[in-house]
Amino acid sequence: MTSHSPLRLHPPEIITWRVYERPLPAGYHVLAERLWPRGVRKEDLPLDDWPKELTPSTALRQWFGHVEDRWTEFRERYLKELAEHQEEACRLLDNAEGRPVILLYAAHDKIHNGAVVLREFLLSQSC
């Protein structure tokens, strides 16, 4: 059993942000991708966390392939995966220490990507 910070009075601010857009907003920077983004040098991306267990599984990511017609099923499957990692989600929110959580993603589509689902999941947590 782990201890978490005291119950939050307000939900955390959680922003999805394309990793290639600069400048990055201030906050707790989290890479919401299982793979490192193409063309980005590690020293050029200030990360606070890279919780791979909170990213879509390789099989799910490959199945989705950013095909918009698969979005609804992808979202459902990904939320089911995330349900197995509530402790890690709470740890991420605790580690942000009240700062806005910036979920960084590489996809071109700002609406149909894993960071959007992860944001939804994190906002639903009562840690």
Automatic annotation (TrEMBL):
InterPro entries, sorted: YeaO-like
Originating organism: Acidithiobacillus thiooxidans ATCC 19377
Matches recorded under Pfam families: DUF488-N3i (PF22752)
Highest taxon in the source lineage: Bacteria
Protein name: MarR family transcriptional regulator
